[in-house]
Design brief:
With about 160 residues, the protein is α+β, with helices and mostly antiparallel strands. A 5-stranded mixed sheet has the order 2-1-5-3-4, covered by helices on one side. The chain has helices spanning about 25-30, 90-95, 105-120, 125-130, 140-160, and strands at about 5-10, 15-20, 50-55, 55-60, 75.
Length: about 160
């Protein structure tokens, strides 16, 4: 199959890749670009482990094709920290023990960021609803909700999201 030159921004950097246009974005990120924070579990859009941000909105990278990257701003978990300082969501996930095996964590953190940008002061029910597309087998979600709520409170104090 022929390849396509695709230009997009990835974690605040302009890049160009050559990829088959019908290749899954999750495979491009993991195999071609070495960004293994984007996980793949189901490959069918059911678990949320492959969540990335496309122009700031959460998307499932296992359901996206490489050609869909063209011209967009893509953020992965590897690009969340700035100047080697963890993002407030990363800090609160650690502080609240919202990470157990860690497999689902990158997708949940990015989905949480999207949620907080759309709703900076969500209720616990809104957090659960906002993260409904992300499955976690280990935590039972309580600590994840606690972490997202703490991040929202921290951001309201600091205005740093």
């Amino acid at each position: 199959m022929s390849t396509l030159r695709i230009t997009f921004r990835l974690n605040r950097k302009e890049i160009q890749i050559e990829a088959a246009p019908d290749r899954r974005v999750s495979d491009v990120l993991r195999e071609d670009l070495g960004l293994t924070g984007t996980k793949e579990s189901c490959g069918a859009g059911d678990c949320g482990a492959c969540t990335i941000l496309v122009d700031g909105a959460s998307r499932l990278s296992c359901l996206m094709l490489a050609a869909q990257l063209q011209g967009h701003e893509i953020s992965t978990i590897e690009g969340l920290a700035k100047d080697q300082r963890m993002h407030v969501l990363q800090k609160t996930f650690v502080e609240h023990g919202a990470i157990q095996c860690g497999f689902c964590t990158p997708g949940i953190v990015l989905a949480s960021l999207d949620l907080l940008k759309r709703n900076p002061n969500p209720t616990r029910a809104q957090i659960r609803e906002g993260l409904a597309g992300n499955l976690c087998r280990c935590t039972g979600y309580q600590k994840i909700v606690d972490a997202v709520q703490a991040a929202a409170e921290s951001v309201q104090e600091e205005e740093s999201l």
